[in-house]
Amino acid sequence: MNYYYITGTSRGIGKALAELLLKDPSNNVIGISRTRSIEHAKYRHFHLDLTDVNATADFKFEIHANAKKIVLINNAGSMGFIKPVGKLNSAVIIKNYTLNLIAPSVLTNAFIECYDTSDAEKIILNISSGAGKKPVDGWAVYCASKAGIDMFSQVVNAEQKIRIENPETDIHGGFKIFSIAPGVVNTTMQDEIRKASKDDFSRLEDFIDYKKNNTLLEPEAVSQKFVHLLSDTNNIKEILSSLKDYELQ
Ligand SMILES: NC(=O)c1ccc[n+]([C@@H]2O[C@H](COP(=O)([O-])OP(=O)(O)OC[C@H]3O[C@@H](n4cnc5c(N)ncnc54)[C@H](OP(=O)(O)O)[C@@H]3O)[C@@H](O)[C@H]2O)c1
After folding, report:
1. Residue 85: inside a domain, yes or no?
2. pLDDT tens by residue, 182-217
């Protein structure tokens, strides 16, 4: 049996990922978000507000004795307010970093602690963004949180590499971790971006055009690529990459 913990399964990329994985009877999906929108015999839902740090810290991963593969997909995320720094709201800054960076860090730590001695294949996939690699005006907290999750992933990878290279001290095998950007995807996040004010966001017209010209990727197509990569992580070229680097065979 395979077990996939996915944050943000109520809509968008997370929902499409969960629904695709559930088509395979050997997969179980445990979804985490504030609302539930999936009903399936192999799906369980945890209602959790990931901006509530204490509630996130209390989340418990379960022991799956029959697991062949256990995966954590840190997908939940939000753009927060689109405004230049100086016009942001402090409470929104704090919530946005908490959702996009603190919650995935806390969950990754708990995931590694829980499955440290499991002999299953153990994978962490962080859904990152091109915005973590280059600055976008109006998106300071989003860009910084995605850059943070990229660096967090690289450090965890370095730590796990040390374990994997010393099998005599570690018989259970390490964790693989990847931080992969999906591209520009037709979800509620894009709806929110198009509602920004032109005065606060110089690239507003580009994002309106992506929708108008039908160049947005669909969550189902993006999920197919993610599921393909997770089926054999040897296909993943780098710790940090983008889905556009991969073609489906
Ligand atoms: N769409 C894009 O173009 C794009 C591009 C690059 C990267 N990404 C990344 O892809 C990931 C998924 O984005 P998406 O476009 O699918 O977004 P979305 O459609 O807005 O979905 C976001 C998901 O996150 C959950 N979420 C939001 N706030 C939460 C909270 N406080 N606690 C728990 N769950 C919460 C939502 O569930 P509830 O509201 O029910 O809690 C929802 O299921 C994000 O990390 C995003 O940064 C997206």
Report:
1. yes
2. 999 999 999 999 999 999 999 999 999 999 999 999
Tell me if residue 3 is catalytic.
Answer: no
Do the domain assignments include residue 192?
A: no
Q: In what order do the strands lie in the sheet with 176-181?
A: 43-47, 27-33, 2-7, 69-74, 121-127, 176-181, 240-242
Buried b / exposed e over 162-201, threshold 16 CB at 10 Å, is eeeeeeeeeeebbbbbbbbbbbbbbbebbeebeebeeeeb
One-letter amino acid at 141 equals V
Mutate to test the pocket of ligand 1, among 11, 20, 208 (most ligand atoms within 8 A of CB): 11
CB of 186 closer than 6 angstroms to any ligand 1 atom: no
Residue 169 belongs to domain with CATH number: 3.40.50.720
Cα–ligand 1 centroid distance for 14 (angstroms): 7
Does residue 226 belong to any structural domain of this protein? yes
Residue 164's identity, in one-letter code, is I
CA of 10 to the centre of ligand 1 (A): 9
Express each pLDDT in 116-169 by its tens digit: 999 999 999 999 999 999 999 999 999 999 999 999 999 999 999 988 787 766
4, 5, 97, 142: the catalytic one is 142
Q: How many domains does the chain fold into?
A: 1
Range of the domain at 21: 2-183+218-245
The answer, yes or no, to whether any atom of ligand 1 lies below 6 A from the CB of 187, is yes
